[in-house]
Structures are given as C-alpha cells and as structure tokens.
Request: fold
Amino acid sequence: MEAQAAQKYWRLLFDEQFRRDTELDGINSLLNYGYAIIRALIARAIVGSGLHPALGLFHSNQYNGLCLADDLMEPFRPWVDYKVYLMASDNPELIVNKETKISLLTLLAEPVLWEQQTLPLMVACHYLLANLKRAYEDSAVILNYPQRIRETLKSPLPEGEGVIRNPAATMSFGGLNSMWVIVLFDLPTDTPEARKQYTVFRKHLLTDGFTMMQYSVYMRHSSSEENAQVHAKRVKLRLPPDGEVRIIKITDKQFGRIEVFYGKKRRKIEEPPEQLSLF
Reply:
C-alpha cells in the first residue's frame, strides 16, 4: 500500500516519468541532500535535549545510530519535497552544487509557527524535542510539530498578507542567535583530593567542547540560546564540592566587543565558527 501510494505521489509531484531512486542524480540527489539536512537537524536537537538518537520509537536497527531521528523527521519530508519541487519548476536540470545546497539549507531558517510563536525551524525543533522528553515522563504532554507559514517564494497570496519574501535574508550560517558560554572558576588545590577535583572538573569542560580562554576561564561557542542552556546545565551537573564557579552566557555580538590585550598590545578576539553547525 505504501509503495503504491509513493508511486502516485512522486508522479503527481514531478511528472509521469519520475522514479524515486536514491542512486540516481538530478531531483533524486537533491531529495537525498534535503533529507540529510533534516535528519542532521533532528539528530542535533535530540542530542541537545539529552536523549539518545539511537533509541527510536518505531525504527529499530542495531546498525543505525539515528533511529529516533528517522522517526521524528518523517513529518518534515514533504517540506523537502516541496522545496525541491519549486527548484525543479525553475530549473528541470537540477544538480547538487553550491547554489542548490544553499537553497535547501534555507529550510533550517524558515519561519515556522510553534505554540503561537514564529521561530526559525532550527530553534523550533529544540522546543519540539524538549516536549518529547517531557512526554516520556508525562503522558498528558501533547507533541505538537512546527507548522509551516504559507510558502514564501511562490505564494498565491497578495504582497504583504503574511508572506515573508526572503527568509534566507535573516539566516546566519554561523549560527542562529549564536551564544558563547564562559565558565570562570576558582578552585582549591591545597590537598590531593582538591587537586583531583580540579582536574576532573577541567576534564569535563574539555570533553564538552570548552577551550581555555585564559587560566581558569573556559569558553564554548553555541549555535543557539537553547544549545547554550544545554552546555551550561552540563557544567552545573559537574560542579566540584568546593570552590567558586561562575557561568556567563553572552551573545556572539557581545563576545565580539571583548577587548583582549597581551601586555600593552591589543590582540584580536577569537573568531566564532564560520560553518553551519548541525551538531
């Protein structure tokens, strides 16, 4: 039944000659790339929520480390399909290149409706996974998926009626609402046990992706405020029994205003990651 429905679906969406095959180029390769983006987006949100991506709800395969991501991404597949449909309408001879990749990546920043809020899809998925985590413990929690705002590029609506004409204009490939988590600590080292606790705490910071900013000051770039909260929570869970620890969360813009001096010479501040961070 599912296979028959898929045959009709793909022919209606593209044309009678189209055949869905993951090994073929053109439209098929764009669909593969779009699904990979959504799968990585969901996997990232799963890990950020503290759940394990290999423990699925319906998918179960000991060789698949992203079973839960495969479960949760299903409702987003038509989003990719329609995006590729629009691209194919403008250019039937589609290939995977820089231009088409960027076009598909704008899905991550597409404005969506979630719980009466308008959010980028990447951010809304973090809230979606937070709700799923609560639903495991409370059966009364309803899992609501983000809803699409009416199509932005080829909308039949007149100009100005709830249509955002260029969602990509608000997208930063360095991260959406990028944040920095800075941990400052002053821990005792006067006994062997205290030195051990110091070493363990510092090792946990390094394992979680923090780097040393200067002595007893460590920093970590996060792609969103929600992601920053996740890493700050991990620090709190690993607090040593003694000493003082401070956690500061600042925006990427505020981080860029830090002035660094080495002696009397001013030094350039660290650069945030340039690439789109999915994990």
Observations:
- The longest strand covers residues 179-186.
